[in-house]
């Protein structure tokens, strides 16, 4: 029987709760589909600081390299807020992404038909929304040097090399070729030189994809257009910080940030994680929505392990649960038959996915 080695990083806050549910679902589909998953748990973020003194232990850096894919929850929280920057949990995640070379963060923003009433936007505006945000993940202002914090001033650097822009643009164009063949590249080229540079390179790459329609949009307008008329977008190609912000905004089309998954791919092993953070405000209460993480596990099966039938089973199980009115509290105001805990939602998806 085929066996895959999965790195598991539960993290902090709601991380352990939501990852446990994703594992439950993975176990159910792997039995149903006849393959084995072997899990190797690793530390990152706040829990790593507590146990080892650093947010990204060497053991984790080495451990992920030996896996077929890595499933990740989320890190961070107020407990670690007063540490110096290089010791903060988030630094560990940035470091891990860099170490793994996962420069392409794919963040689908889709609206489930079953949840068209879950958004504060009109159903006519959001029904059928299916956007793929392609976010550059290992460059830009989150990584640029110099970066310094002093008493009287502080600064960061937004920097992109030609190769960094080219390779993420290629990913976006390749994805667009399998979709509606439309890319909107989002930047701030009216103000930032780095965005002018970004545009020029994206235009260069576009020459190799004559079938793809390329447009450009400033990020402030893009934030507005996402809410005004999201269906105008197919693939959104953008940099690290803009993609981070726009994908959180796009989650409100779907109804909750607790629904949207992501896949980070690039040079080797992929990292699969929900787009949200560790939600310390609801951690430990059993009310987190595990669907974003369960969907991330589905992306892992599809993109990293090529287990497409198992991934389809999970996606269908999620739709079925939503269609039958099962809701966690974050989407509980809309067409709910039953409000579920995090664990109950995991049980339902695992059950449906295994049938
Ligand atoms: N990938 C990661 O590990 C990320 C970590 N963070 C970290 O997470 C911590 C909290 O950050 P926030 O800005 O509050 O963002 P957040 O995404 O953790 O939470 C924002 C809001 O969404 C809600 N929420 C998030 N996930 C949910 C889920 N699955 N089900 C139901 N509700 C959910 C939270 O309760 C909160 O009200 C910080 O330490 C931050 O640095 C933030 C973003 C990404
Ligand atoms: C916590 C940060 C390192 C990143 C972030 O917010 C994200 O990737 O969504
Ligand atoms: Mg974010």
UniProtKB/TrEMBL annotation:
It comes from the Bacteria. PROSITE patterns: IDH_IMDH. Binds 1 Mg(2+) or Mn(2+) ion per subunit. One of its GO terms (biological process) is L-leucine biosynthetic process. The keyword Chaperone does not apply. Mg(2+) binds at residues 220, 244, 248. Its cofactor is Mg(2+); Mn(2+). Signal peptide: none annotated. It is an enzyme of class 1 (oxidoreductase). It catalyses: (2R,3S)-3-isopropylmalate + NAD(+) = 4-methyl-2-oxopentanoate + CO2 + NADH. NAD(+) binds at residues 77-90, 277-289. Its EC number is 1.1.1.85. GO terms for cellular component: cytosol. The keyword Translocase does not apply. Pathway: Amino-acid biosynthesis; L-leucine biosynthesis; L-leucine from 3-methyl-2-oxobutanoate: step 3/4. It holds the Pfam family Iso_dh. The record marks 142, 188 as: Important for catalysis. Residues 5-349 form the Isopropylmalate dehydrogenase-like domain. It is found in: Cytoplasm. One of its GO terms (molecular function) is magnesium ion binding. Homodimer. Catalyzes the oxidation of 3-carboxy-2-hydroxy-4-methylpentanoate (3-isopropylmalate) to 3-carboxy-4-methyl-2-oxopentanoate. The product decarboxylates to 4-methyl-2 oxopentanoate. NCBIfam families: leuB (TIGR00169). Belongs to the isocitrate and isopropylmalate dehydrogenases family. LeuB type 1 subfamily. This is 3-isopropylmalate dehydrogenase. It comes from Sulfurovum lithotrophicum.
């Amino acid at each position: 029987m085929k066996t895959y080695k999965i790195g598991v990083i539960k993290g902090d806050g709601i991380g352990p709760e939501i990852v446990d549910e994703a594992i439950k679902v993975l176990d159910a589909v792997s039995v149903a589909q006849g393959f084995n998953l072997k899990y190797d748990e690793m530390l990152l973020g706040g829990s790593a600081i507590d146990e080892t003194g650093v947010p990204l232990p060497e053991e984790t850096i080495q451990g992920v390299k030996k896996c077929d894919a890595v499933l990740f929850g989320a890190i961070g929280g107020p407990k670690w807020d007063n540490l110096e920057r290089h010791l903060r949990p988030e630094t560990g995640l940035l470091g891990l992404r860099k170490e793994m070379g996962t420069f392409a963060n794919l963040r689908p923003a889709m609206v489930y038909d079953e949840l068209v009433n879950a958004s504060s936007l009109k159903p006519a505006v959001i029904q059928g929304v299916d956007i793929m945000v392609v976010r550059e993940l290992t460059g830009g202002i989150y990584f640029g040097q110099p970066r310094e914090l002093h008493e009287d001033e502080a600064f960061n650097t937004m920097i992109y090399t030609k190769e960094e822009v080219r390779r993420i643009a290629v990913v976006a164009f390749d994805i667009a070729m399998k979709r509606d063949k439309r890319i909107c590249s989002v930047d701030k080229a009216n103000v930032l030189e780095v965005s002018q540079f970004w545009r020029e390179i994206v235009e260069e790459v576009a020459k190799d994809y004559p079938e793809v329609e390329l447009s450009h949009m400033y990020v402030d307008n893009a934030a507005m257009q996402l809410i005004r008329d999201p269906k105008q977008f197919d693939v959104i190609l953008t940099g690290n910080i803009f993609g981070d912000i726009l994908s959180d905004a796009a989650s409100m089309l779907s109804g909750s940030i607790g629904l949207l998954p992501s896949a980070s791919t690039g040079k080797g092993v992929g990292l699969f994680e929900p787009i949200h953070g560790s939600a310390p405000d609801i951690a430990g209460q059993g009310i987190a929505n595990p669907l974003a993480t369960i969907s991330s596990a589905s992306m892992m099966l599809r993109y990293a392990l090529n287990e497409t039938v198992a991934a389809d089973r999970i996606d269908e199980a999620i739709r079925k649960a939503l269609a039958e009115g099962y809701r966690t509290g974050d989407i509980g105001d809309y067409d709910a038959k039953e409000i579920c805990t995090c664990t109950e939602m995991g049980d339902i998806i695992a059950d449906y996915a295994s049938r």
